[in-house]
Task: structure prediction
Amino acid sequence: MSQRPARAPFPVWRQPITPRTRSVAVITPDDAVVGPVCDAVRAVDPGAQVERASLDDLVPHTRLVVVDEDAAPAAVAKAAIVAPSARVIVLWRRASVKMLTLASEVPAVVGLLDAHDGPMLMYAARRVLVPTEPAPTGHDLMPWGSTAVMWRPSSTGQSRKIVQDLERVARRTGLTRRSCNTLSLVGHELLMNAIYDAPVDEHGAPLHAADRAADVVLDGQQTPTLALWISCDQISLDATDPFGKLTSGRFFASLARGLNSHRSGVVTLDTSHGGAGLGMFTIFRAADVLRVEVTPGRSTQVSWTQRRAPKSEADIPSIFFFSAHQG
Result:
Protein backbone atom coordinates (compact mmCIF):
# COMPACT_ATOMS: atom_id res chain seq x y z
CA MET A 1 0.00 0.00 0.00
CA SER A 2 1.20 3.51 -0.70
CA GLN A 3 0.19 6.80 0.82
CA ARG A 4 -2.03 9.45 -0.70
CA PRO A 5 -0.29 11.43 -3.46
CA ALA A 6 0.21 15.14 -2.93
CA ARG A 7 -2.79 17.16 -4.11
CA ALA A 8 -2.12 19.96 -6.54
CA PRO A 9 -3.53 23.26 -5.24
CA PHE A 10 -5.54 23.67 -8.44
CA PRO A 11 -5.93 20.49 -10.57
CA VAL A 12 -4.78 21.06 -14.14
CA TRP A 13 -7.94 19.65 -15.67
CA ARG A 14 -10.06 22.32 -13.98
CA GLN A 15 -8.08 25.31 -15.18
CA PRO A 16 -10.08 27.85 -17.22
CA ILE A 17 -9.99 27.43 -20.96
CA THR A 18 -9.76 30.03 -23.67
CA PRO A 19 -13.29 30.98 -24.76
CA ARG A 20 -14.09 30.10 -28.38
CA THR A 21 -17.27 29.07 -30.10
CA ARG A 22 -18.25 25.44 -29.70
CA SER A 23 -21.81 24.47 -30.43
CA VAL A 24 -23.66 22.24 -27.97
CA ALA A 25 -27.16 21.05 -28.84
CA VAL A 26 -29.54 19.96 -26.05
CA ILE A 27 -32.40 17.89 -27.47
CA THR A 28 -35.10 16.96 -24.97
CA PRO A 29 -38.83 17.67 -24.52
CA ASP A 30 -38.39 17.89 -20.75
CA ASP A 31 -38.40 21.56 -19.70
CA ALA A 32 -37.12 20.63 -16.24
CA VAL A 33 -33.98 19.08 -17.73
CA VAL A 34 -32.96 21.73 -20.27
CA GLY A 35 -31.92 24.41 -17.77
CA PRO A 36 -29.71 22.23 -15.53
CA VAL A 37 -28.04 20.61 -18.55
CA CYS A 38 -27.26 23.97 -20.16
CA ASP A 39 -25.99 25.32 -16.83
CA ALA A 40 -23.70 22.30 -16.39
CA VAL A 41 -22.15 22.78 -19.84
CA ARG A 42 -21.72 26.53 -19.46
CA ALA A 43 -20.08 26.01 -16.05
CA VAL A 44 -17.21 24.06 -17.61
CA ASP A 45 -16.93 25.95 -20.89
CA PRO A 46 -18.01 29.62 -20.89
CA GLY A 47 -17.08 29.81 -24.58
CA ALA A 48 -19.57 27.17 -25.65
CA GLN A 49 -22.75 28.11 -27.49
CA VAL A 50 -25.30 26.00 -25.62
CA GLU A 51 -28.87 25.94 -26.90
CA ARG A 52 -32.01 23.88 -26.76
CA ALA A 53 -32.27 22.41 -30.22
CA SER A 54 -34.06 20.07 -32.58
CA LEU A 55 -32.50 17.58 -34.97
CA ASP A 56 -32.74 20.16 -37.74
CA ASP A 57 -30.59 22.58 -35.71
CA LEU A 58 -27.47 20.40 -35.85
CA VAL A 59 -24.65 22.06 -37.79
CA PRO A 60 -21.16 20.95 -38.93
CA HIS A 61 -19.42 22.66 -36.00
CA THR A 62 -21.64 21.01 -33.37
CA ARG A 63 -19.22 19.44 -30.91
CA LEU A 64 -21.62 17.88 -28.42
CA VAL A 65 -25.20 16.63 -28.60
CA VAL A 66 -27.01 15.99 -25.32
CA VAL A 67 -30.17 14.10 -26.14
CA ASP A 68 -33.11 12.40 -24.46
CA GLU A 69 -33.04 8.62 -24.90
CA ASP A 70 -36.23 8.61 -26.98
CA ALA A 71 -34.60 10.80 -29.63
CA ALA A 72 -31.13 9.25 -29.34
CA PRO A 73 -31.22 6.89 -32.36
CA ALA A 74 -32.45 9.67 -34.67
CA ALA A 75 -29.94 12.15 -33.24
CA VAL A 76 -27.05 9.74 -33.72
CA ALA A 77 -28.06 9.12 -37.33
CA LYS A 78 -28.48 12.84 -38.05
CA ALA A 79 -25.18 13.81 -36.36
CA ALA A 80 -23.29 11.19 -38.39
CA ILE A 81 -24.31 13.05 -41.54
CA VAL A 82 -24.37 16.70 -40.48
CA ALA A 83 -21.76 16.81 -37.68
CA PRO A 84 -19.59 13.68 -37.93
CA SER A 85 -17.09 14.94 -35.34
CA ALA A 86 -19.78 15.53 -32.70
CA ARG A 87 -19.98 13.37 -29.60
CA VAL A 88 -23.31 12.29 -28.11
CA ILE A 89 -24.42 12.05 -24.49
CA VAL A 90 -27.71 10.26 -23.92
CA LEU A 91 -29.92 11.14 -20.95
CA TRP A 92 -31.56 7.89 -19.91
CA ARG A 93 -34.32 7.26 -17.38
CA ARG A 94 -33.19 3.76 -16.48
CA ALA A 95 -30.50 1.32 -17.51
CA SER A 96 -31.50 0.18 -20.98
CA VAL A 97 -30.23 -2.66 -23.17
CA LYS A 98 -31.31 -0.61 -26.20
CA MET A 99 -29.16 2.38 -25.25
CA LEU A 100 -26.18 0.22 -24.25
CA THR A 101 -26.40 -1.55 -27.60
CA LEU A 102 -26.58 1.79 -29.41
CA ALA A 103 -23.44 2.95 -27.59
CA SER A 104 -21.67 -0.32 -28.44
CA GLU A 105 -22.40 0.19 -32.15
CA VAL A 106 -21.76 3.95 -32.41
CA PRO A 107 -18.43 5.23 -31.01
CA ALA A 108 -19.77 8.79 -31.08
CA VAL A 109 -21.97 7.91 -28.08
CA VAL A 110 -19.65 8.55 -25.13
CA GLY A 111 -22.07 8.74 -22.23
CA LEU A 112 -25.33 7.38 -20.85
CA LEU A 113 -26.13 9.70 -17.97
CA ASP A 114 -28.75 10.41 -15.35
CA ALA A 115 -30.16 13.80 -16.37
CA HIS A 116 -30.05 14.91 -12.73
CA ASP A 117 -26.40 13.97 -12.17
CA GLY A 118 -24.93 17.47 -12.46
CA PRO A 119 -21.31 16.54 -11.62
CA MET A 120 -21.23 13.84 -14.30
CA LEU A 121 -22.83 16.15 -16.86
CA MET A 122 -20.05 18.64 -16.13
CA TYR A 123 -17.41 15.94 -16.29
CA ALA A 124 -18.63 14.52 -19.59
CA ALA A 125 -19.04 17.92 -21.21
CA ARG A 126 -15.56 18.99 -20.14
CA ARG A 127 -13.94 15.84 -21.48
CA VAL A 128 -15.64 16.24 -24.86
CA LEU A 129 -15.14 19.99 -25.23
CA VAL A 130 -11.57 20.04 -23.90
CA PRO A 131 -10.24 16.60 -24.87
CA THR A 132 -6.55 17.46 -24.56
CA GLU A 133 -6.73 17.77 -20.79
CA PRO A 134 -5.51 14.78 -18.76
CA ALA A 135 -8.25 12.63 -17.32
CA PRO A 136 -8.89 13.24 -13.61
CA THR A 137 -8.56 10.43 -11.10
CA GLY A 138 -10.80 9.66 -8.15
CA HIS A 139 -8.30 11.71 -6.13
CA ASP A 140 -9.20 14.83 -8.13
CA LEU A 141 -12.94 14.29 -7.77
CA MET A 142 -13.07 13.51 -4.04
CA PRO A 143 -13.37 16.07 -1.22
CA TRP A 144 -10.10 17.06 0.44
CA GLY A 145 -9.26 14.83 3.39
CA SER A 146 -10.75 11.63 1.93
CA THR A 147 -9.09 8.35 2.81
CA ALA A 148 -6.86 7.13 -0.01
CA VAL A 149 -4.94 3.88 -0.42
CA MET A 150 -3.07 2.65 -3.50
CA TRP A 151 -1.69 -0.73 -4.58
CA ARG A 152 0.39 -2.02 -7.52
CA PRO A 153 -0.12 -5.79 -7.73
CA SER A 154 2.38 -7.74 -9.82
CA SER A 155 0.82 -11.18 -9.36
CA THR A 156 -2.49 -12.93 -8.81
CA GLY A 157 -1.33 -13.80 -5.30
CA GLN A 158 -0.89 -10.12 -4.47
CA SER A 159 -4.28 -9.28 -6.00
CA ARG A 160 -6.01 -11.72 -3.64
CA LYS A 161 -4.35 -10.04 -0.67
CA ILE A 162 -5.40 -6.62 -1.96
CA VAL A 163 -9.03 -7.69 -2.04
CA GLN A 164 -8.70 -8.60 1.65
CA ASP A 165 -7.02 -5.24 2.33
CA LEU A 166 -9.89 -3.42 0.62
CA GLU A 167 -12.42 -4.94 2.96
CA ARG A 168 -10.26 -4.27 6.02
CA VAL A 169 -9.78 -0.58 5.15
CA ALA A 170 -13.48 -0.23 4.36
CA ARG A 171 -14.49 -1.63 7.74
CA ARG A 172 -12.16 0.79 9.52
CA THR A 173 -13.80 3.76 7.79
CA GLY A 174 -17.24 2.71 8.98
CA LEU A 175 -18.73 1.26 5.82
CA THR A 176 -21.58 -1.19 6.26
CA ARG A 177 -20.97 -4.90 5.84
CA ARG A 178 -22.88 -4.81 2.56
CA SER A 179 -20.74 -1.94 1.25
CA CYS A 180 -17.58 -3.77 2.31
CA ASN A 181 -18.69 -6.88 0.44
CA THR A 182 -19.55 -4.84 -2.65
CA LEU A 183 -16.20 -3.08 -2.53
CA SER A 184 -14.24 -6.33 -2.35
CA LEU A 185 -16.32 -7.82 -5.20
CA VAL A 186 -15.77 -4.80 -7.45
CA GLY A 187 -12.07 -4.68 -6.53
CA HIS A 188 -11.74 -8.35 -7.42
CA GLU A 189 -13.36 -7.84 -10.83
CA LEU A 190 -11.27 -4.76 -11.61
CA LEU A 191 -8.08 -6.61 -10.75
CA MET A 192 -9.12 -9.67 -12.77
CA ASN A 193 -9.61 -7.42 -15.81
CA ALA A 194 -6.32 -5.60 -15.26
CA ILE A 195 -4.24 -8.74 -14.71
CA TYR A 196 -5.85 -11.25 -17.08
CA ASP A 197 -7.64 -9.28 -19.82
CA ALA A 198 -5.55 -6.14 -20.30
CA PRO A 199 -1.98 -7.44 -20.89
CA VAL A 200 -1.05 -7.97 -24.53
CA ASP A 201 2.18 -8.72 -26.36
CA GLU A 202 3.89 -6.50 -28.91
CA HIS A 203 1.47 -7.72 -31.58
CA GLY A 204 -1.62 -6.95 -29.51
CA ALA A 205 -2.36 -10.61 -28.70
CA PRO A 206 -3.69 -11.34 -25.16
CA LEU A 207 -1.10 -12.78 -22.81
CA HIS A 208 -3.22 -14.21 -19.99
CA ALA A 209 -6.90 -14.03 -20.98
CA ALA A 210 -7.20 -17.68 -22.01
CA ASP A 211 -6.92 -19.08 -18.49
CA ARG A 212 -8.28 -17.04 -15.59
CA ALA A 213 -7.37 -19.77 -13.13
CA ALA A 214 -3.66 -19.54 -13.92
CA ASP A 215 -1.17 -17.91 -11.55
CA VAL A 216 0.14 -14.81 -13.30
CA VAL A 217 3.26 -12.77 -12.55
CA LEU A 218 3.58 -9.42 -14.31
CA ASP A 219 6.79 -7.54 -15.00
CA GLY A 220 7.19 -3.93 -13.89
CA GLN A 221 5.93 -2.43 -17.16
CA GLN A 222 2.75 -4.54 -17.06
CA THR A 223 1.76 -3.78 -13.47
CA PRO A 224 -1.65 -2.15 -12.95
CA THR A 225 -2.61 0.31 -10.21
CA LEU A 226 -5.65 0.05 -7.96
CA ALA A 227 -6.62 3.11 -5.90
CA LEU A 228 -9.30 3.34 -3.23
CA TRP A 229 -10.90 6.63 -2.21
CA ILE A 230 -13.45 6.95 0.60
CA SER A 231 -15.22 10.16 1.60
CA CYS A 232 -18.18 10.86 3.85
CA ASP A 233 -20.65 10.33 1.01
CA GLN A 234 -19.07 8.09 -1.62
CA ILE A 235 -16.60 5.30 -2.34
CA SER A 236 -14.44 5.15 -5.46
CA LEU A 237 -12.06 2.62 -7.01
CA ASP A 238 -9.72 3.42 -9.90
CA ALA A 239 -8.02 0.56 -11.77
CA THR A 240 -5.40 1.61 -14.31
CA ASP A 241 -3.50 -0.69 -16.66
CA PRO A 242 -0.63 0.35 -18.97
CA PHE A 243 -2.05 -1.15 -22.18
CA GLY A 244 -5.01 0.95 -23.35
CA LYS A 245 -6.72 -1.78 -25.36
CA LEU A 246 -10.32 -1.52 -24.14
CA THR A 247 -12.72 -0.25 -26.83
CA SER A 248 -16.10 1.40 -26.38
CA GLY A 249 -17.73 -1.30 -28.49
CA ARG A 250 -16.49 -4.12 -26.28
CA PHE A 251 -17.21 -2.17 -23.09
CA PHE A 252 -20.80 -1.21 -23.84
CA ALA A 253 -21.55 -4.59 -25.48
CA SER A 254 -20.51 -6.40 -22.30
CA LEU A 255 -22.86 -4.21 -20.25
CA ALA A 256 -25.73 -4.75 -22.72
CA ARG A 257 -25.19 -8.51 -22.68
CA GLY A 258 -25.04 -8.61 -18.90
CA LEU A 259 -28.14 -6.46 -18.43
CA ASN A 260 -30.10 -8.51 -20.94
CA SER A 261 -29.09 -11.73 -19.18
CA HIS A 262 -29.98 -10.26 -15.78
CA ARG A 263 -33.46 -9.19 -16.88
CA SER A 264 -34.33 -12.15 -19.10
CA GLY A 265 -32.83 -14.89 -16.97
CA VAL A 266 -31.09 -16.26 -20.07
CA VAL A 267 -27.33 -16.02 -19.63
CA THR A 268 -25.34 -15.16 -22.75
CA LEU A 269 -21.60 -15.63 -22.34
CA ASP A 270 -18.69 -14.16 -24.27
CA THR A 271 -15.56 -16.23 -23.75
CA SER A 272 -13.58 -14.54 -26.54
CA HIS A 273 -11.44 -12.67 -23.99
CA GLY A 274 -11.35 -15.38 -21.32
CA GLY A 275 -13.82 -15.81 -18.47
CA ALA A 276 -17.56 -15.47 -19.01
CA GLY A 277 -17.57 -11.84 -20.13
CA LEU A 278 -19.82 -10.72 -17.27
CA GLY A 279 -17.24 -9.11 -14.97
CA MET A 280 -17.79 -5.58 -16.25
CA PHE A 281 -21.54 -5.95 -15.76
CA THR A 282 -20.91 -6.97 -12.15
CA ILE A 283 -18.99 -3.72 -11.69
CA PHE A 284 -21.68 -1.70 -13.49
CA ARG A 285 -24.55 -3.18 -11.50
CA ALA A 286 -22.98 -1.99 -8.24
CA ALA A 287 -22.09 1.48 -9.57
CA ASP A 288 -23.69 4.88 -9.35
CA VAL A 289 -21.02 6.17 -11.73
CA LEU A 290 -18.78 4.15 -14.05
CA ARG A 291 -16.12 6.03 -16.00
CA VAL A 292 -13.60 4.67 -18.49
CA GLU A 293 -10.72 6.75 -19.81
CA VAL A 294 -8.50 5.21 -22.50
CA THR A 295 -5.28 6.44 -24.05
CA PRO A 296 -4.92 3.88 -26.87
CA GLY A 297 -1.80 1.77 -26.50
CA ARG A 298 -0.84 3.48 -23.24
CA SER A 299 -3.45 3.14 -20.49
CA THR A 300 -7.00 2.24 -19.53
CA GLN A 301 -8.48 3.73 -16.38
CA VAL A 302 -11.75 2.24 -15.10
CA SER A 303 -13.29 4.28 -12.29
CA TRP A 304 -16.16 2.92 -10.20
CA THR A 305 -18.09 5.09 -7.75
CA GLN A 306 -20.89 4.24 -5.35
CA ARG A 307 -22.66 6.66 -3.05
CA ARG A 308 -22.81 5.66 0.60
CA ALA A 309 -26.56 6.29 0.77
CA PRO A 310 -28.61 3.07 0.40
CA LYS A 311 -28.84 1.98 -3.25
CA SER A 312 -32.15 0.98 -4.83
CA GLU A 313 -33.24 -0.56 -8.13
CA ALA A 314 -34.68 2.85 -9.09
CA ASP A 315 -31.26 4.53 -9.04
CA ILE A 316 -30.02 5.57 -12.48
CA PRO A 317 -26.33 4.88 -13.14
CA SER A 318 -24.19 7.27 -15.16
CA ILE A 319 -21.69 5.73 -17.58
CA PHE A 320 -18.98 7.52 -19.53
CA PHE A 321 -16.36 6.15 -21.96
CA PHE A 322 -13.74 8.45 -23.43
CA SER A 323 -10.81 7.54 -25.65
CA ALA A 324 -8.08 10.11 -26.25
CA HIS A 325 -8.26 9.63 -30.03
CA GLN A 326 -11.90 10.76 -29.94
CA GLY A 327 -10.79 14.32 -29.44
The longest strand covers residues 299-307. Residues 177-197 form the longest helix (21 residues).
